[in-house]
Amino acid sequence: MKFRTFAASLSGLCAAGLFLSADALAFDADTAQALAKKEGCTKCHAVDKKKEAKSLTEISKSLKGKSDAEAKLLHHLTSAEMVKFEDGKEEEHKVLKTKDKAEIKNLTDWILSLGK
């Protein structure tokens, strides 16, 4: 009888752990969108249609399936690399002002989720 109670308790804890770990891995889309707006990303990028630059969904699709997708996106958001527009104009990509790694991770996870 004690074994059944122990096994049931252990099963419950495992199920709760899986549920909580899935939540811990999830991103907060509203927070990511607010950060994108605050950082000025939405001046050039829309979520699902082209503005002055590719949509965030297009960017996500271009990175889909690449093992270094997150690293590439992170580099793009934090390195001020040169970007070229369709009209031939080039400029440095704006760097995220926030240094909060959790905020940046949430933003990159959200962007990468858009192309699925």
What does this structure look like?
This protein is mainly alpha-helical and 116 residues long. 56% of the residues lie in helices and 5% in strands. It contains 5 helices and 2 strands; from the N terminus they run ααααββα. It has helices at 2-25, 29-38, 56-63, 69-78, 101-113, and strands at residues 82-84, 90-92. The chain has a two-stranded antiparallel sheet with strand order 1-2. Helix 2 (29-38) crosses helix 5 (101-113) and helix 4 packs across helix 5. It is globular and about 40 Å long. The termini are far apart.
Features:
56% helix; single chain; 116 residues; mainly alpha
Quick overview of this protein structure:
The protein has 116 residues and is mostly helical.
How many DSSP helices?
5
Could you tell me the radius of gyration in angstroms?
A: 20 Å
Biggest β-sheet: strands ordered side by side in the sheet: 1-2
Order of SSEs, N→C?
Answer: HHHHEEH
Structural class: mainly alpha
Q: What is the averaged pLDDT score?
A: 85
Low-pLDDT parts are: 15-23
Largest sheet: 2 strands, antiparallel
**Spatial shape:** globular
Query: How many beta strands in the DSSP annotation?
Result: 2
**For the terminal residues, how far apart are their CA atoms?**
48 Å
Multimerization state: single chain
Helix content: 55-70%
